[in-house]
Amino acid sequence: MSLLTRYPALKAAIANQYQAILAAGAVGFSVLMLSPLPLLLFAGVELMVMPMMVDRIRRRLEIEKKYADRVSGHTNTPMPPKGRGATHAHD
């Protein structure tokens, strides 16, 4: 079992369109400047930001899973009425 299949939050943090755009920009600047400095800067920033990105994506995946469980588990049960005085049915 690979690391990315075991940790879907890590996979989502690495393999997204924004990461690809940033990596392509770093490669482009590196080629344009004939220097590895943009790639090293990109790698350093990624190492600093990756824990925050993984944590945020992990929380989002947990929220989406809870929402999917709640929606699939309560499709046939009616929701209580909302609004003022909805808990008191005395008329």
Description:
- The model has no long low-confidence stretch (mean pLDDT 83).
- The protein contains 4 helices and no strands.
- Helix 2 (8-14) crosses helix 4 (37-73) and helix 3 (17-33) packs antiparallel against helix 4 (37-73).
- It is mostly helical.
- 2% of the residues are buried.
- The protein has one domain.
- The longest helix is centred in the middle third of the chain and has 37 residues, at 37-73.
Short description:
This protein is mainly α and 91 residues long. Helices cover 71% and strands 0% of the residues.
Radius of gyration: 23 Å
Shape descriptor: elongated
Question: If helices are DSSP runs of H or I spanning 4 or more residues, what is the number of helices?
Answer: 4
Order of helices and strands: HHHH
Main β sheet profile:
none
Q: Tell me which oligomeric state these chains represent.
A: single chain
Q: How many strand segments?
A: 0
The helix/strand class is: mainly alpha
Contiguous uncertain segments of 5+ residues:
none
Binned, the helix content reads over 70%
Strand content: under 5%
Number of separate domains: 1
First-last Cα distance: 61 Å
State mean pLDDT (0 to 100 scale). 83
